[in-house]
Amino acid sequence: MTRRVLILAHTGREESMIAALEACVQLHANNIVPVMYAEELADMTGYLGVSDVSMEILDRDVTLADVELVMVLGGDGTILRAAELVRDYDVPLLGVNLGHVGFLAESERADLIQTVDWVVRREYSVEERMTLDVTVRVKGKVVAHTWALNEVALEKGNRERMIEVVTEVDGRPLSSFGCDGVVMATPTGSTAYAFSAGGPVVWPEVEALLMVPISAHALFAKPLVVAPTSTLAVEVLTRNGAYGVIWCDGRRTVDLLPGARIEVTRSNQPVKLARTQASPFSERLVRKFELPVQGWRGPSGDESVAPTTQLPIIAPPRPKTQPDGPHAGPVPLVPDLMAAPDGAADGGWPNHD
C-alpha cells in the first residue's frame, strides 16, 4: 500500500519552503509519496525552482483520507491551521517548529532529517488532545457554533472601555466584573493565551477546562480549573453598552453585541498529535521556556521503599500555672449561678418594676 505524507508549510517564509523541499526529497527517497496543496507547491517551486521529486496534489490527486500523516513546518499558528484541516479525519499532525516557542511542535528545525526518518520507520505514537465546543447565543438563539484546540478568547471590542461580563460554571453565576476579556482554554492551550493572562500551566494529560479573566477590575476574578464535564459560560452585560469579540485559536472570530452569551464545553472530536519522543511534558516546559534548572540533583539511585519516619509528636498545650506557682490556699468556691442574688424576694430575681 502506498504511503503518503502531507507537507504543510508557511510559504511566506524562506526557511519554511527550504524545509518543505528537504522533507519532500527525503520522503521520496524512502518510497513515501509527498503530498502538498497546489498553492503551496507553486510558491515553493516558484521560489526554489522546479524539483524532480514526484509529488501529488491534495484535493486533485488524493484526499486527506488517503494520507497517513500531516507534517507541519512552521510555528504554532501553522499547526493550528493544520488542525482545522485534519480534525474531521483520522489523521495525526506532526509539527516541526520553525517559529518562536512552538509548544505544539514535536521537534525543532535542526532535527528535521531525524524526524522524517522516524516517520519513514513509523517510530511515532499518536495522542489525542481535547478540543472545545463553542456556542454563541443572542436572546436564546444560536448565532454561531465553532470549536477550538487552544482557547476561545472573549475580548473587548472597544479599546477605550472595559467589557462588562458575568461568568458562569455549570449553570450557576460566579461573579460579574469589568475586564479586558476572558479566556476559556484546554490544557493544550494553557501555555498559550491563558498563560499570558496569568493562568496555570496544565499538563496535557490532565482532563480539565480553564477560565482565565484578562485584567479584571474585581477582587475575586481568579483563574479557574474545572472538570472536563463542566459547562463554562460568559455573558456580555448591557450596562455600559460595550460590545465584544471572540477569537477561537486566533483564527475564527465572531462579533458579540451586549447581551450575547458564550457557552463552552468539551468537544467529542479531539485533535490527534504525533509524538516521536517519549520525554515528559516537564522537559518540554523547561526547554521551550528556557527555565533555569542549575543545581538540580535529581532523585537518588536507591529504589528501596523507605519506612515511614517516626517524627516527634507535638503534645497539646497545657494550662498555664499562676506566676507564683501552684495555688496553696483553700480552693475558692464556685458561685451557684442559679441561687437568688442578694435582695431578691422569695428566691426570685429582683423586681425592677
Radius of gyration: 32 Å
Order of helices and strands: EHEHEEHEEHEEEEEEEHEEEEEEEH
Average the pLDDT over all residues and give the rounded result: 89
**Coarse structural class:** alpha+beta
**Low-confidence residue ranges:** none
Q: Could you give a short account of the major beta sheet? A: 6 strands, parallel
Put simply, the count of helices is 6
Biggest β-sheet: strands ordered side by side in the sheet:
3-2-1-4-5-6
Please bin the fraction of helical residues.
10-25%
Strand content: 25-35%
Report how far apart the termini are: 108 Å
What is the general shape?
extended
Description:
- The protein has six helices and 20 strands.
- The protein has 353 residues and is of the alpha+beta class.
Secondary structure elements and pairings:
Layout: E1 4-9, H1 14-29, E2 33-36, H2 38-48, E3 56-57, E4 69-74, H3 76-86, E5 93-97, E6 107-108, H4 112-120, E7 125-129, E8 132-138, E9 141-148, E10 151-156, E11 163-169, E12 172-179, E13 181-185, H5 193-196, E14 209-214, E15 224-226, E16 232-236, E17 244-248, E18 252-256, E19 260-266, E20 271-275, H6 281-289
Parallel strand pairs: 1-2, 1-4, 2-3, 4-5, 5-6
Antiparallel strand pairs: 7-20, 8-9, 8-19, 10-13, 10-17, 11-12, 11-16, 13-14, 14-15, 16-19, 17-18
Helix pairs in contact: 1-2, 1-4
Short description:
This protein has six helices and 20 strands. The chain has helices spanning 14-29, 38-48, 76-86, 112-120, 193-196, 281-289; strands spanning 4-9, 33-36, 56-57, 69-74, 93-97, 107-108, 125-129, 132-138, 141-148, 151-156, 163-169, 172-179, 181-185, 209-214, 224-226, 232-236, 244-248, 252-256, 260-266, 271-275. The chain has a six-stranded parallel β-sheet with strand order 3-2-1-4-5-6, sandwiched between helices. Strands 9-8-19-16-11-12 form a six-stranded antiparallel β-sheet, with no helix packed on it.
